[in-house]
Amino acid sequence: MTLLVQKFGGSSVSDVDAIRRVAQRVVATRESGASVAVVVSAMGDTTDDLLDLASQVSPNGPAERELDMLLTAGERISMALLAMAISDLGTPARSFTGQQAGMRTDSSHGRARLLDVTPARVAKALQRGEVAIVAGFQGVSDEEDITTLGRGGSDTTAVALAAALNADVCEIYTDVDGLYTADPRIVPSASRVTRITIEETLEMAAHGAKILHLRAVEYARRFGVPLHVRSSFSDQEGTWILVDRPLTGAQTPGPTTRHTPHSATDPRPSEDPMEDPIISGIAHDRSLAKVTVVGIPDRPGGASQVIGAVATAGVNIDMIVQNVSTSPDGLSDISFTLPEVDGAAAVAALRELQHDLGMADVLYTSHVGKLSLIGAGLRSNPAVAQRMFTALAEAGINIEMISTSEIRISVITDQDVLEDAVRAVHSAFRLDAEAEAVIYGGTGR
Amino acid sequence: MTLLVQKFGGSSVSDVDAIRRVAQRVVATRESGASVAVVVSAMGDTTDDLLDLASQVSPNGPAERELDMLLTAGERISMALLAMAISDLGTPARSFTGQQAGMRTDSSHGRARLLDVTPARVAKALQRGEVAIVAGFQGVSDEEDITTLGRGGSDTTAVALAAALNADVCEIYTDVDGLYTADPRIVPSASRVTRITIEETLEMAAHGAKILHLRAVEYARRFGVPLHVRSSFSDQEGTWILVDRPLTGAQTPGPTTRHTPHSATDPRPSEDPMEDPIISGIAHDRSLAKVTVVGIPDRPGGASQVIGAVATAGVNIDMIVQNVSTSPDGLSDISFTLPEVDGAAAVAALRELQHDLGMADVLYTSHVGKLSLIGAGLRSNPAVAQRMFTALAEAGINIEMISTSEIRISVITDQDVLEDAVRAVHSAFRLDAEAEAVIYGGTGR
User: Fold this and answer.
1) Which sign does the torsion angle of CA A329, A335, A340, A344 carry?
2) Which residues of A touch B (CB under 8 A)?
3) What is the C-alpha separation between B370 and B403, in angstroms, rounded?
4) How far is it, in rounded angstroms, from Cα A394 to Cα A424?
5) Which residues are in the ACT domain (chains A, B) (predicted)?
6) Which of A86, A139, A203, B365 is 20 to 30 A from B82 (CA-CA)?
7) What is the ipTM of this complex?
8) Hey, what domains does chain B have and what are their CATH numbers?
């Protein structure tokens, strides 16, 4: 029997009416003959309301363990209500906390990592023909303390559950109907992507697309879980994110059965294996800042010391760029981007070591923009990069940094011109809605 | 070191300010040198709000298991916020769900019974000097399903925790400052009781006093837990409910150390062991209905069949009265009171068996009133009953049924005259506030 995991975010269960709509959708899926496990987030503003209460009772900042205890009440409410609503329609349903669903994590409160997923109770409920509702975002540590998975947590729960149950697909329901070739609020002509590879989605998520969290995409890639991102407000198909094969060593069944429809209720697209798109789409990110360390003696270990100092300060680094030294004094510069919230810590750490490392200066720019062009065609086609840089030049946009990977070209620009840059590149690659076989784009949700 | 369990009900944690006030009280207790475990209910109207959501998503009535999952979110929120508020004042605090606190129950959702209480994690937290906050009302079944204890659940949690931890006292904080000789809303001159025995409190709770739930009092009696009922809005002492000795077989340390103050922070009253009051107080109950089965053949087994039929229908019976048969045809009547909500079910069950059991008729009166006079003096003093009946007669109140125990006399009256009856008896026994050594009275909370 086909097994689906359906994940509904907070906006899909924002109130009683929304919960009843989701219940109807789940029941319709179940009645089509598929087994259904549902992962649900907290209702609408619940999490924000709870955070507000927490800051009121603890002006000095709430204890992390207690904050996890508090916030997990949110999914407890939404999942119990959804189970009731489904049962009320005559379909048996049962809700499970992260702990009951076997979501074992480390004990890093607020940002716990999954260590083991053993959803035996969920599997049993499915075998009995029940709809299993699992709380997103939460788990339990070895010390039996309640943990939360941090940002992107509910998507990660859904993908992890789909992997552990060997589900045929993990459907991510959201308030938009899929991935777009660029953020439709910036590029109104952006088109919806029908299929994309997981690697391209990974680059999208890593470089600013917000519709799916990077961590959930990484998990899906690792365990070979096909994703289907679609709207909870319509029945039309969204974007299929397909995996060729799980990474070696991932403990999930091989991919051989994943691309052959095997039942009338098979939820996967019936067309042929996906074609190779030239360009997937454009992601952008405005949460970054930039640091340039000037005048590092050009000798082995220089970059390591700079990045090491920043890493020791607990700062996550995004892109790193260092060019070959061409200066007569043998000094080079190294630049990196990082989350803007970490900017002050990184600069402080570097200034402390400025003398020891022999750096001339540390320059800091808050609020840079990053544009990333993503697609399978990039690795074999230098004309893509040329067309991208030309489009930006013609739009009068200065490129401050460039970084590339096999399937991505990223540029750093002034944040004020980022939206112009997205539109210029989108247009240059003819990613408008009339075009076919063209992919991606995140909304700012 | 002295160990206190402090229980705060929903009205004591109704909002952020109330939670911060409770936090200050807990911290003050902790700083006086005592160890403190706190049991907390859901905030103010949370439970009602959640029940409202449940009825909206499931018009056919919510599934019991899911209702427990939903409602337990309430204490999760209040306990996490209280732990944060206490930590914010510089005192380490840690919250525990019913499961984490070792509250093992049977799997009767909505009305689970405690099977085992093993608060190892709570004890460890206390040993570390932390304040332990435990969710009231909730537990976990052998199947690891979340359960709730039903009415009086948080009081029961507090008493059970106090017993398992061998606490010196279980303080029940509420919105009134103790037990009164009668409901102050009916008898404005009612006086606050300073001490009362657990047996008298048990009769009070069983016969309509609402300040402490019967079940919690039973648990306290069984395990020899001293209770102190007091106001969360003042520092003055409330009512001490003292236990001479736990029942045989209860697994709690003997009572020998319970009445000897053994430290400067000993929370117990410093006076001599309690004196024997003549009359404890007056309880009343207006939630009952009355059934009279007329014309039962006066032979062995008649009462058993009647009560058996009702019990089989799942109805709890309150008082049962059957007088000796004096009728020439050898028929007798049997009357019993029961919760009014169960009235229809009981009558239906009896009517079904009316012919088989040879009953002439089944009479039903909804909304009767019950007045109970409670005190240690009753067992040895028939004049007490006489004075009570005389007072009622002088007030023109008809007595429909009478039932007595060693320390209680209950009468059933028309519900319309119940308050007059309470005032008449209160006055007849001079229980007004001027009197000393006089006990009890529940508010309608």
Assistant:
1) negative
2) 16, 19-20, 23, 50, 53-54, 56-60, 62-63, 65-67, 69-70, 72-74, 76-77, 79-85, 87-88, 93-95, 97, 100, 121, 144-146
3) 10
4) 9
5) 291-367, 373-445
6) A139
7) 0.71
8) 3-257 (3.40.1160.10), 281-428 (3.30.2130.10)
